[in-house]
Amino acid sequence: MEIAVDLVSELADKLRSDAKRLAEDKEKILRSIESLVELLKSDSSNALSAAQRDDALCHLHKAYKLSETVQVSINLMARDAAQLSASRQVNSLLSDLEKDVKKNPINSRQRVMSYMNACCSNQTVGVPPDEHFGATIVGCTLDDQKEAKKRIEIMLEYVDQRS
């Protein structure tokens, strides 16, 4: 019986880690599609004909819509009301930051770094941590903090690619 319990526990852990990986893969795919669309729309060289460019954009749009149909949800088991509230606030702040980063990546870099510095003990010199974000994220569970940091790292990569 003990072996069966251990096996089921391992399978549940694997399921959770696989779901996290799928969510990360989806985000990578969506970012790649967005980058390719930007490249195709801004490419002033004549490497592709207008018809080829339109065809590529059509395929990318289809891939984006297909990827958007995938919904991965990983719920944490142990969140109290304060942690749930903090998690919602952090997610709202990060969603706002993601919108700003997509609109103007270069001007958003400083804010992304200030959010990252609020999450990390090894801070980037010259960029003070965002105090509001820092005060909010400490109220989250450790899993929520890790997830927020991953989102910020993704934004930082995006900003660095555009610089």
From TrEMBL:
Q: Write the protein's name.
A: BAG family molecular chaperone regulator 2-like
Question: What PANTHER family does the record point to?
Answer: BAG FAMILY MOLECULAR CHAPERONE REGULATOR 2 (PTHR12334:SF6)
InterPro entries, alphabetized: BAG2
Q: What is the lineage of its organism?
A: Eukaryota, Metazoa, Ecdysozoa, Arthropoda, Hexapoda
Instruction: Spell out the molecular function terms from Gene Ontology.
Output: adenyl-nucleotide exchange factor activity; protein-folding chaperone binding
BP GO terms, sorted = protein stabilization
